[in-house]
Amino acid sequence: MIHLLAEHLSQNISRRLKYSELKQQWLRYGLESALSQVFSFSLIFIIAIFLKVVFEVLIFTVVFLLLRKRAGGFHFENDLLCSAVSIVLCFSSVFLAKLIAHTSDFAVGISLLVAFIAEIVIIFLAPIRHPKLHLTRPETLKLKKNTRIVCVVISALLLIAFVLPVPSEYIAVANAAIISVAVLTIFAKLLKQEEKSNEQEELEHELGAGPGGTENH
Q1: What's the total number of domains in the chain?
Q2: Does the residue 56 lie in any domain?
Q3: Segment 36-41 long-range contacts (CB within 8 Å, at least 24 positions apart)
Q4: Which among 12, 31, 150, 211 is placed 20 to 30 Å from 181, CA to CA?
Q5: How many Å apart are CA 13 and CA 27, to the nearest integer?
Q6: According to the model, what pLDDT value does residue 217 have?
Q7: Which DSSP state fits 215?
Q8: Is residue 214 part of a domain?
């Protein structure tokens, strides 16, 4: 349903603004992603109200989206599956974080250390060039730079929060969001859900070419 709505909207907008086919594909993917997230997070916050974890879910969502929008990561093609996984990921992370926070401050410190390692992974792998995005080299470099900035800012805020008398469960929830984004970027890499850059394609072509300049078979 979300896919069909995004398709319909992108066609109408592209027709009126005279977008190219490539720009229409980018617009359709952006709309589909936005609509899917609106649906998922609306449902998430409704559930959060009933479970009385609204602030924890808000922290998770803000940190997750700040990184996810820049770093990218694995995406499910099915909208319902994507929404279901988002809900499970959010609430499992929140309740696991609360469990860690209620264990000890040492456990929260360990989760903070793991989150910092996860940020290094994100900086190293990001951005994930999803095939539907068709990112140019300047766009890729800009996203990589923005990812680094966001990671540094989040790290600084978490360190300050850890020193100050901020409830440990809030810190643990933010850590869980960072780790979740890192896992999704790793999945995208392992499952090769990424568009090759021009440099990668040129390198593979050169490696596949024989001494005479023709490809070996």
Answers
A1: 1
A2: yes
A3: 36/2, 36/79, 36/82, 36/83, 37/65, 37/86, 39/2, 39/79, 39/83, 40/82, 40/83, 40/86, 40/87, 41/86
A4: 31
A5: 9
A6: 43
A7: B
A8: no
Q: How far is the first Cα of the chain from the last one, in angstroms, to the nearest whole number?
A: 45
Sign of the dihedral defined by the CA atoms of residues 205, 209, 214, 217, in that order: negative
How does pLDDT run across 66-95, given as a tens digit for each residue?
Answer: 998 888 877 777 767 878 888 999 999 999
Q: Is residue 40 part of a domain?
A: no
State the residue range of the domain holding 133.
52-198
Tell me the pLDDT tens digit for each residue of 1-46.
666 777 777 778 888 877 777 777 777 777 777 787 788 888 999 9
* Residues constituting the chain: 217
Flag whether 16 is in a domain.
no
Of 178, 137, 174, the residue nearest 158 (C-alpha) = 174
- Tell me the whole-structure pTM to 2 decimals: 0.76
